[in-house]
């Protein structure tokens, strides 16, 4: 609902608008946050969302430990992918809670930019984690292919892009690592089916989006399964770190779009906000508001500025005698 809050009138007024119509995240909508903010476990949607979150915690720990123990860089990268999801969910939860606080004199446009800063932090973490893992995978493959004493390996290993045990012999990823990745696919597919079924039953787009989140996560684990098993069957030791490189690319790609969006919002870019469905809804509500409160006046335009999941609308109107925006 469009609400007017103005101390004076000079041809335009500003109004604070709450429309939670978008979200930041990691190549998918972090829609689960709406369900994680309640503990009503009698609601099937809430229950399956919390089950999914706890399963993610267990799988992230299991894949991380398994990747280290069974010498699989692709499984470690898959674990980083899972951890980035968890960090994103919890950081988004924290920032969304702050963003919902009412406006104050110090923050007349609300706290929505806190949510945008949280999105920036999540995207930055994704890029750092993906770059670090990708660097380690490239260096491992280069050492295997060119030798530890090659010029490329020598200079590339000096880059401060991540941790790597330079000169350590490349070990074949063990079959046990593949079974962990395969189990992850099974769990994620089960979560997809359960969440999607409940989402359709409740007609909840939030739950359906979160269900597809689980399905997309299967892709990273599938890369691990393919690279580990392929390495074992074909005797290609470098195939596992190559799988880790692919997953690293997925992580980096997931961070680029939300990072660009967060920077755009923090810089005050209004292009996206004013071309959204929300802009059309605000335009319609502003037209009705002007007709009701100021008969004879004309709405010239509405300018939306995005503050996280909130919007601030500047409404330009003109008097009956002068059809140009004032102020």
Automatic annotation (TrEMBL):
Signal peptide: none annotated. InterPro entries: Cation_efflux (IPR002524), Cation_efflux_TM (IPR058533), Cation_efflux_TMD_sf (IPR027469), CDF_Transporter (IPR050291). GO terms for cellular component: membrane; mitochondrion. Transmembrane segments: none annotated. Pfam families: Cation_efflux. One of its GO terms (molecular function) is monoatomic cation transmembrane transporter activity. GO terms for biological process: intracellular iron ion homeostasis; iron ion transport. It is a multi-pass membrane protein. Its main location: membrane. It comes from the Eukaryota. It is found in: Membrane. Keywords: Ion transport, Iron, Iron storage, Iron transport, Membrane, Transmembrane, Transmembrane helix, Transport. Residues 50-266 form the Cation efflux protein transmembrane domain. Gene3D superfamilies: Cation efflux protein transmembrane domain (1.20.1510.10). Mitochondrial metal transporter involved in mitochondrial iron accumulation. Belongs to the cation diffusion facilitator (CDF) transporter (TC 2.A.4) family. SLC30A subfamily. This is Mitochondrial metal transporter 2. It comes from Wickerhamiella sorbophila.
